Amino acid sequence: MKLRSFQYILQQSFKGIWRNRGMSVASISSVAASLTILGLMMVLVLNMSHLAGLAQTQFDSVQVYLENDLTPEAIESLGQDMTAITGVSYVLYESKESALAKMKDRWGTQGYLLDTLEENPLPNSYIVHVSHINVSDRVVSELNTLPGVDEVKYYRDIIDNLIRMAGLIRSVGLAVIVILIMIATFIISNTIKLTINARKREINIMKYVGATNWFVRWPFLIEGTLLGFIGAAIALGLVYMGYQSIFDMIATRFFVIFSAYLLTVEEMMRRTMVMFAVLGAGVGALGSIISLRRFLEV
Amino acid sequence: MIEFRNIHKTYDNGVQALNGINLKINKGEFVFLVGPSGAGKSTFIKLLLKEEEPSDGCILVDNEDITRFSRRKVPYLRRKISVVFQDFRLLEEKTLYENVAFAMQVVGASPKDIRRQVPMVLGMVGLSDRAKQYPHQLSGGEKQRVSIARAIVNRPIILIADEPTGNLDPETAWEVMKVLRHISRRGTTILMATHAKDIVDVMQQRVVALEKGRIVRDAQRGIYGYET
To answer: Start and end of every ABC3 transporter permease C-terminal domain (chain A) (predicted)?
Structure first.
């Protein structure tokens, strides 16, 4: 396409947006609203998946409490039995004494309180590291069958809940987003219809003097795409500001530790930006095409 | 230049609009297409502009069979065959200059060409001094002359005029005819569908008469031949 034709087409696109200001604003807002909600959902889902992922790497161990009356030999052989289970990468023994010492450490200045105990209430335990979180269920059930094992503790439930919740939010969110995007497409298609109607005479003349079909179509296609794109940019801005303030709030008012489990603002933007741009422009182009096919006979 | 070979056109609703049309129009000819309403004049023009397809036969324009053209080539056909209508079809929000320049812009002409060509055609239709005015400031005859200027600005080889004087009083109609004759003398083929008896009779050009979808008369230096 020649450069001056491109200039003309672009000029017509902006004219179209300005001519139907009201509908243009409605189109942009609907895209922005849909994508902002999508962004919100992504903030939740991405963070939960991220957290679940972190949990999987950090909680790949299972704590096995032993019965109190075992002999050192029995403890030793129990350890060997545990190592023999497939899916176990290695085991560490933690005696009740070292468990108490660790607890004292963790309690810090309040550690002296533990000195008043007459008897060490903590059990001996093994910390069993599994090779992959997926096998932990089987490992746990096998550990439970071993004689001398009192209780098995692990964090699979938390991770499962996290993954299940992320999945639920994702499916409900997707349904909502699909409906919102359909509404946005419909509104854009109506906006383009108005522009087509306003330019009916012009289009008729263009056809009779030999303008190519694409020369007639481009301005409408660009108009719709621009509306979608602007909507996406606004949504991205809103999500950015929203996530930034949530992130800051968590980092300053709650725990710095906890914010380490969240995706950084930059990472969040990196994951949403391209998606928003493609979705926004796509919704706009689709809306235009629907109207072009229905109302523009070229 | 234009050749209709055994053209038939039956519309989907069963109306037989054209029934075996054979006609040759040479380069630079001025041809009147006459006949009662419903004789097939409009269909004839629509086939030439490729707004309708013939049911049978072929149409040659500039030695090319346009019935075989794909839809994609139609815009390029319309740069060769230009058309003016009874209702002028000007853009009210544009000046005369802009109305004519518009036809060049949308086919991708260079600004330099536009600046040279638009004043020239406005001169040809005698409206050089009105270039900055808007259509609503013009008489019917002047509007039609602007529409002619727009139709010829891309240098078509054929100009179709569909009842160009239909909305005009006799005096302004003659202004328009003078312009058309001038364009014809410069080598553009002109095909004019009309009901204007006095114009056809005075111009003394070729007259093709259609009735019920057939050519019933084709006379050089002909007359209108119907009572008005």
So the answer is: 175-295
